[in-house]
Amino acid sequence: MKPTDARVGYDWLTSARDWTDATPKFLAATYVRPKTQTLSSDGRRYGGFIVRVYFDGQLQDSRASPPELLTFFPAEDQPISSPNAVPSPIH
Fold first, then answer.
1. CA trace torsion 14, 90, 62, 19 (10° rounding)
2. Where does 1-91 have alpha helices with state H?
3. Helix H or strand E segment including 52
4. Per-domain boundaries in the chain
5. Distances (CA, A) of 3 to 17, 55, 72, 89
6. Tens digits of per-residue pLDDT, 2-42?
7. Of 4, 12, 22, 46, which has fewest CB within 10 angstroms of its CB?
8. Nearest-CA neighbor of 43 among 88, 1, 87, 89?
9. How far is CA 51 from CA 34, 39, 42, 54, 68, in A?
10. What burial letters (b/e) apply to 20-46, b meaning 16+ CB within 10 Å?
C-alpha cells in the first residue's frame, strides 16, 4: 500500500469552528482520480482512508477505515501537509 496520487480536498459542513466549544465539527473530504486512469498501471485500488487531526503541530486524534491502516502508516510527529490539507486515502 502507498498514499494516493488522487486530488484530495475538503469542505467544512459546520459553519462555526470555535475550538473552545466542545461540540462536534464536521467536514466532508473529497477524493478524485482522473477518469482517464480507470485502472492504475501498477494495479493499485482503493484501500481505505486515514484522517488525522493536528492542533499546534501535535496529533490530537486519528481514525481509519480499515483501522489496521493506522498500524501500517503510523503518524508523524508533525503534519507534513499544509494546514488546509486532508490526509490522503490509501491505495
1. -20
2. 69-72
3. strand 49-55
4. 7-72
5. 28, 23, 11, 6
6. 777 778 888 889 887 787 888 888 888 888 877 665 566 66
7. 22
8. 1
9. 22, 25, 25, 10, 13
10. eeeeeeeeeeeeebeeeeeeeeeebee
pTM of model > 0.70: no
Cell of 12: 467544512
Q: Return contacts of 65-70, CB within 8 angstroms, 24+ apart.
A: 69/1
Please tell me the distance from the alpha carbon of residue 86 to that of residue 91, in angstroms, as a whole number.
Answer: 16
3-state secondary structure of 55: strand
